[in-house]
Design brief:
Strand content: 25-35%
Mean pLDDT: 93
Helix content: 25-40%
Distance between the termini: 19 Å
Number of helices: 3
Shape: globular
Low-confidence stretches: none
Order of helices and strands: HEEEEHEHEE
Strand order of the largest sheet: 1-2-7-5-6
Number of strands: 7
Largest sheet: 5 strands, mixed
Length: 150
């Protein structure tokens, strides 16, 4: 099954959007694509807004992280000419807007790691960084960026 079909089957089809930023959604250099940070936007609107440990639950943050991951994959799809050209997910960085006492940021990003493995198999095995932040752009609870080998 194609990667794009698998995402759709899981309930996360690739969005149809264009880059509306003053910077690139991702940059390819050699066989690597560096994808800019993505928020959990669906049709240009944040799915959830707020801080994990306060107004956003861990489950909502996990869903936000998956949506942001899929938005990253949309950029990869456009830059690489299809997700079938992904050779390896090299690194994923996750930023979680959270209260000072919230320490389960890795639990939030585990949802993305599981999705990467489910969709890409061995090519989805990656290194990862997860960080807490006091706030993120636009009020998104999670932002995801990644490096992909094609």
């Amino acid at each position: 099954m194609k990667v794009e079909e698998k995402l759709k089957e899981l309930g996360y089809p690739l969005p149809h959007r264009t880059n509306e930023r003053i910077f690139e959604a991702g940059i390819r250099t050699g066989n690597l694509i560096f994808v800019s940070g993505n928020a959990a936007k669906v049709d240009g609107v944040l799915k959830y807004k707020g801080i994990v440990g306060n107004s956003v639950s861990v489950e909502q943050a996990q869903e936000s992280a998956i949506i942001a991951f899929v938005n990253c994959l949309n950029s990869v799809n456009q830059i690489a000419g299809g997700l079938e050209n992904v050779k390896k997910i090299v690194n994923i960085k996750g930023y979680v807007a959270s209260t000072p006492d919230f320490v389960d940021q890795p639990l939030v990003m585990d949802a993305v790691s599981r999705m990467a493995l489910e969709v890409f198999g061995d090519a989805g095995k990656h290194s990862r960084v997860t960080m807490g932040a006091s706030s993120l752009p636009g009020g998104t609870p999670v932002e995801v960026e990644m490096v992909i080998e094609v």
